[in-house]
Amino acid sequence: MTEEKIVVGEGSRYPLKGLLTLPADVSNPVPAVVFVHGSGSSNRDEKVGKLTPFRDLAHGLAAHGIASVRYDKRSFAHGFRMLRDKSLTITVQEETIEDAILATEMLRGDSRIDPEKIFIIGHSMGGMLAPRIDAEGGNYRGLILMAGTPRRLEDVLIEQNNQVLTEMKGWMRRFVEKQIGKLNDTFAGLYEMSDEEAKTKKMGGGVTLYYFKEMGEHPVESYLARLDKPILVMQGGKDFQVKADVDFRMYKEILADHPDASFRLYADLNHAFVPSVYGSIAKAKQEYGIEQHIGESVIADIAEWIRHVSLS
């Protein structure tokens, strides 16, 4: 395995540092994947606590002869600049989609990569966006969705907030309940608002309600309904951020008539595809603070699926 430093969007307003990971043998063009982060600001490894999911996957896939590109998310590398830009209303287009497509085009221009065998791996919110990225210019050979959801982002956020409440007691629960209630109330009537009104209502992290509105007006299900290429949906059975009995089940229902949809459920893994420790959203910080790595079973499943699709 070798790794080369790259810059996604070099020369643009928001260049992103990253790494191209290559297998040992590139004497013939190899398949490759583009990694797309979950929500929030993430570096190229999608580091959370002591976990580095994208680095684990990149190194593991290289051992199976598959290249990959990973890069710092725009909100991680240029968050302050984005907030200072008064002409910019941040949506997933600026935060994620544009850069994923730029990274894909970079791969297509590399002679060591087979341009007909480029895949997207979207994790969490990246899994939600992967079908849209494919439709808006990614044009991948196949899609891999890891711990994604076909639901709207605000619905998942509200559910997570309410789940935190159920795991709290006493005065702290009453205090947090008021704060969460206010947050949940902000989404009321979201899709009846004009775009201009939604842009005036600020949320945390420098985004406005329009961030959620714009994303919700591009529903995942509509992209999946039109999808005519191979797709692999992966889910941890102990995931406390999106749920196997809700989100994974919904994917299976939506894709029931898709001729080339595959599904993998890992009973004991969490949202980051490592073994569950606490299994509680209230203890997410502690769970992700334990150093673990994505196991070979997950990596081998991805590699096998990519090889199968590449040969079909």
- What number is the mean pLDDT? 94
Assembly level: single chain
CATH architecture: 3-Layer(aba) Sandwich
Instruction: Give the SSE string.
Output: EEEHEHHHEHEHHHHHEHEHH
Biggest beta-sheet profile: 8 strands, mixed
Please give the order of strands in the largest beta sheet: 1-2-4-3-5-6-7-8
Helical fraction? 40-55%
Total DSSP E strands? 8
Q: Quickly count the domains.
A: 1
Structural class: alpha/beta
Q: What is the straight-line distance between the termini?
A: 26 Å
Description:
With 312 residues, the chain is of the alpha/beta class. Helices cover 43% and strands 17% of the residues. It has 13 helices and 8 strands. An 8-stranded mixed beta sheet has the order 1-2-4-3-5-6-7-8, sandwiched between helices. Strand 5, helix 5 (125-138) and strand 6 (142-146) form a beta-alpha-beta unit. It is globular, with a radius of gyration of 19 Å. The model has no long low-confidence stretch (mean pLDDT 94).
Salient structural properties:
alpha/beta; Rossmann fold; eight-stranded mixed β-sheet; 312 residues
